Amino acid sequence: MSRIEGLGQVVHGQDRILILGSIASVESLAKGYHYAHPSNRFWKVLAQIYQQPIDTLEDKKQILADHAIALWDTCRSCQREGSADASIKAIEPNDIPAFLKANPSIETIVCNGNVSYQTMKKTYPQIQCIKCPSTSAANARWSLDALVKEYGKWLKNE
């Protein structure tokens, strides 16, 4: 099982929302940007919530900037086979407290999926965060409409 390093932070200076994944997928790591796998519904969820296009990487960056959303992952590095969160082992967490200190405008932390949430609760139990369902296609129990409704509860409050 190989050790992988996650992607860096996406920040804009006055972000109010931090969305934390577990760690980038193989495809995201190869492309160098969060949620790059075409079957992951993350960008589709944001596009529907905010009624903005996501056709290009620039569109995706713009939707985050327009709505003061930062992205990062709970895992700085880990061992993982493929992209499945279920195979994540030996987590080295990102320093979320330092991130929050450097970005004091963050008001809401949303965890994208169970591994992200459990890593936060185990590593930083003092930090409040919201557990949302994973936008991964592997989480087929949640339709796109249901994901939009759930994430919209936390992302629509602008």
From TrEMBL:
Keywords attached to this entry: Glycosidase, Hydrolase
GO MF terms held by the record: DNA-deoxyinosine glycosylase activity
The keyword Secreted is annotated on this UniProt entry: no
All residue ranges annotated as the Uracil-DNA glycosylase-like domain in the record: 14-151
InterPro entries named among the record's database cross-references: Hypoxan-DNA_Glyclase, Uracil-DNA_glycosylase-like, Uracil-DNA_glycosylase-like_sf
SUPFAM superfamilies linked: Uracil-DNA glycosylase-like
E.C. number(s) listed in UniProt: 3.2.2.15
Record bears the keyword Transcription: no
Gene3D superfamilies: Uracil-DNA glycosylase-like domain (3.40.470.10)
Top EC category: hydrolase
NCBIfam families in alphabetical order: hypoxanDNAglyco
Protein name per UniProt: DNA-deoxyinosine glycosylase
Species name: Absicoccus porci
Organism lineage string: Bacteria, Bacillati, Bacillota, Erysipelotrichia, Erysipelotrichales
